[in-house]
Design goal:
The protein has 279 residues and is an alpha/beta fold. It contains 10 helices and 10 strands. The chain has an 8-stranded mixed β-barrel with strand order 1-2-4-5-6-7-8-9, surrounded by 4 helices. α3 packs parallel to α4. It is globular and about 50 Å long. The structure holds ligand C2E and calcium ion (3 copies). Ligand C2E binds next to β2, α3 and β6. This is EAL domain-containing protein.
Amino acid sequence: GKNDGKGQYRFFDPALSNTLSSRARLKQHMLEALERDQFMLFYQPRVDARSGELLSMEALIRWRHPELGLVSPGEFIPLAESTGLIVRIGEVVIDKACAQLAAWRAAGVALVPVSINVSPKQFLHGGVVRQLSAALSKYRVPASLIEVEITESAMMGDQDDILAELASLRALGVKLHVDDFGTGYSSLSQLQRLKMDVLKVDRAFTMELGNSKEGKVFFQAIVSMAHALGMSVVAEGVETAEQLAILQGLDCNEVQGYYIARPVPAGEMMGMMRRRFLL
Ligand code: C2E
Ligand code: CA
Ligand code: CA
Ligand code: CA
């Protein structure tokens, strides 16, 4: 299995996936995991590309399985989405993120926003707006401390429905981020019409930066168009000093990736909240 570089966390080995082979069994396991509170959040810093200041952290779900160890979302989120279980799992994510912010506040650390990933199924009849406002008041967390990431492809459905849902989220006071930008077919003007605040450019484009001139040109075009439309740009999946240097040259606003920091449990994140990141 993989580890986080420190050997503390054991990740799910795909070779074990036959233990979760059938969809029905995996779904049953997920229901049990909900009952037994086996889902938890890791947090990954997102920092200013120039100053290294911590701006936000992304909440990334992990399934702490009693036999398999930490299971990555790639192993269960797709099935959670297709079975509708993502609505219940998503509510747990919202609750845990808000509870964590309240706990950090109680511990006296300077807070930065947490961004949570929201699947399309959680919109419309999923009640994500209601869940979020309930959690915010339950933990007395201001909406300005929550950001919502929605993938570009999720925004390609019925524009009227999506517009209404996004408007309700914005009315709560949360910032909206376009996740995995560049992998779908939306135009930047469409995203501006949806009043998205931040563009997170997919890791695939960060990987191309050092490889080809075209990679750089493409990224540069995204940054200038996003800026012209009043959106901020985040590069995800920054793994090398070279990529970071190129991104700084391209005027990319924020960076996230293993080169800066890996996703870590809340306890470790708290230590990182007290410092600036060295870029
Ligand atoms: P994402 O939202 O695009 O999240 C970024 C993924 O890239 C995370 O994987 C993160 O750990 C990983 N990553 C961060 N920096 C680097 C890097 O420098 N290099 C590489 N190779 N990877 C990096 P993770 O945590 O396994 O999550 C995978 C996906 O699962 C997420 O992609 C997101 O789509 C989904 N996901 C995670 N948490 C949740 C959640 O709470 N709800 C929903 N609906 N989906 C979630
Ligand atoms: Ca994300
Ligand atoms: Ca992403
Ligand atoms: Ca992704």
